[in-house]
Design a protein that fits this description.
80 residues, mainly alpha, two-stranded antiparallel ribbon, Iron_ascorbate_oxido_reductase, IPNS-like_sf, IPNS-like_FE2OG_OXY, Isopenicillin N synthase-like Fe(2+) 2OG dioxygenase domain-containing protein
Length: 80
């Protein structure tokens, strides 16, 4: 939403090697719970229009987790 659809997230995939160990580190960032998530104004200006409406962060999180493993479809449903 913040990038107005410009930057896409990738699906995480890993190939397990039968004899080598693998280490992963998960890093998460999130805004304050009472904030609003919307496309950044400078990206809307460059792209011509906002692809997503603004939504409260908590409403976004509730919808995202309710979608379970279908997070991409949930994000698509938020397009304006």
């Amino acid at each position: 939403i913040l990038s107005n659809g410009r930057y896409k997230s990738v699906e995480h995939r890993a190939i397990v090697h039968s004899t080598k160990e693998r280490m992963s580190a998960a890093v998460f960032h999130q805004p304050c719970q009472d904030s609003t998530v919307a496309p950044l104004p400078e990206l809307v200006k460059n792209d011509g229009r906002a692809q997503y409406s603004s939504i409260s962060f908590m409403d976004f999180i509730k919808g995202y987790f309710a979608a379970k493993l279908d997070g991409r479809s949930y994000l698509e449903s938020l397009k304006s």
